[in-house]
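MmcQ/YjbR family DNA-binding protein
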Amino acid sequence: MTHLPIMHRPQFEAFVLSLPSATIVHQWRDDSVAKVGGKIFCLLDRDPGEIWLKVSDMSYDLMVDMDGIRPAPYFARAGWVAISHESALSEDDIRAYITEAHRLVSGKLGKRLRSELGL
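Predicted structure tokens:
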């Protein structure tokens, strides 16, 4: 089974950091956790090698029925999915979902914070 390049930490972090006002912290089991305005929008769970991210309600309903995608543990109630290297999503698809997760989470930040962050 081949791993998508974005599943590797350097590529994942470089892409996340290209998004406006995004930051990376290493926490929990040394996962790469992406935040905007202090709020998590996606993470790279290094073991088992999944990207967890916030998706829209419609995307959640569709995605959890796809092979290689499951409700993200602990985060599913907030509309998060876990995408494994076994999913049929391309790297471009995953990048688009990460970008959308950033948009969804940054859009819920307060007006003042969004302004301070240039969002």
